[in-house]
Amino acid sequence: MFEIRSYHYDPEQFEAYKKWAIDDAAPYLKANLNVVGFWLDNGSDIELTGSDPTPHKHGAANVTWIIKWASKEDRARGMKDVFAGDEWQGIMSRHPDTDGYLQLEARFAEEV
User: Fold this and answer.
1) Class of 2-42+58-109 per CATH?
2) Is the CA virtual torsion 15, 12, 27, 95 positive or negative?
3) Would you give per-residue pLDDT tens digits along the chain (112 residues)?
4) I need a surface site. Which of 2, 56, 100, 110 has the fewest CB within 10 A?
5) What is the pTM of this model?
6) Which letter does DSSP use for residue 64 in this model?
7) Separation CA 29–CA 64 (nearest Å)
């Protein structure tokens, strides 16, 4: 099972968030979870197509990461273990603005 996490982070504070994500969050997450990828917006224009190409209220997600889990139970255990510890709390204490998350979305997908 894959968890696809997409965040719409405040564009005005995005550069500070990127630095924190690159220096602090991503290395810890990659070391403690089965992170398939961690992507940060690079400023390129989005391609929005389809029969109703209506932009999202906050624009495109500017942070996306994917975690592979064995099951929903594995996810519940893993999230608790990784995010409840002192090391993650220290990382979060350096976060530029935890209120900067305008919207967070977690979706779940199966590999085909």
Assistant:
1) alpha beta
2) positive
3) 999 999 999 999 999 999 999 999 999 999 999 999 999 999 999 999 999 999 889 989 999 999 999 999 999 999 999 999 999 999 999 999 999 999 999 999 998 9
4) 110
5) 0.90
6) E
7) 13
